[in-house]
């Protein structure tokens, strides 16, 4: 059976992480690959440090997050695939420039969303149209920092026909 780890944040840190967390998250690339191989993982889907600047980063911060992700992908020799982080509250022009740079003309393979905007929010439309035009998947958190779902029950079918995946975090 082929195993792909579909949600990883290797070698990324945030100021609020404890030394114990940093010892786990800041493993050298060789150690990450060794542990992955021991677990039967053939490939890892990496996501940048999307909370580095807190919720709703501006365009320059978003680009820094994506540069970090792309660097890891390019250094990974094919072991990593990466997602382009987008803040859907930014302008359509800013989103298009970012996806052109990192997906269309770059090495990232899909879009990552955090808690910036609920999936059923109309402000998601420009970003989803970009994803659709590039034929790439979208991965969004299924909760926000206040415990509200990122995908409201009334949004059933909203993403029909679009490549969309939500994920939840468990403690």
Give a nutshell description of this structure:
The protein has 171 residues and is α/β, with parallel strands linked by helices.
Q: What would your notes on this structure say?
A:
The chain has 171 residues and is an alpha/beta fold. The chain has helices at residues 19-25, 29-38, 59-75, 92-104, 125-134, and strands at 3-8, 41-46, 80-85, 110-113, 138-141, 164-167. Strands 1-2-3-4-5-6 form a six-stranded parallel β-sheet. Helix 4 (92-104) packs parallel to helix 5 (125-134). The model is unreliable at 150-164 (pLDDT under 50).
Main-sheet strand order equals 1-2-3-4-5-6
Beginning-to-end CA distance, first to last residue: 27 Å
Taken in chain order, the helices and strands follow as: EHHEHEHEHEE
Q: Compute the gyration radius: what is it?
A: 16 Å
Quote the average pLDDT.
Answer: 75
Shape: globular
- Please report the number of helical segments: 5
Q: State which percent range the strand residues make up.
A: 15-25%
- Low-pLDDT stretches are 150-164
Tell me about the biggest sheet? 6 strands, parallel
In total, the number of strands is 6
Helix content: 25-40%
| Structural classification | alpha/beta
Which key features would you list for this structure?
6 strands; globular; six-stranded parallel sheet; alpha/beta; 171 residues; single chain
């Amino acid at each position: 059976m082929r195993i792909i780890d579909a949600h990883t944040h290797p070698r990324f840190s945030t100021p609020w992480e404890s030394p114990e967390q940093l010892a786990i998250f800041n493993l050298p690339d060789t150690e990450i690959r060794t542990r992955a191989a021991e677990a039967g993982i053939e490939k890892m889907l990496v996501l940048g440090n999307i909370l580095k600047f807190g919720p709703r980063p501006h365009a320059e911060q978003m680009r820094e997050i994506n540069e970090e992700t792309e660097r890891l992908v390019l250094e990974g020799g094919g072991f990593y695939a990466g997602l382009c982080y987008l803040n859907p509250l930014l302008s359509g022009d800013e989103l298009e420039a970012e996806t052109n740079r990192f997906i269309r003309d770059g090495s990232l393979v899909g879009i990552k969303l955090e808690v910036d905007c609920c999936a059923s929010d109309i402000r998601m439309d420009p970003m989803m149209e970009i994803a659709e035009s590039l034929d790439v998947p979208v991965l969004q958190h299924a909760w926000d920092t206040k415990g509200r779902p990122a995908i409201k029950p009334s949004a059933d079918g909203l993403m029909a026909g679009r490549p969309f995946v939500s994920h939840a975090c468990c403690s």
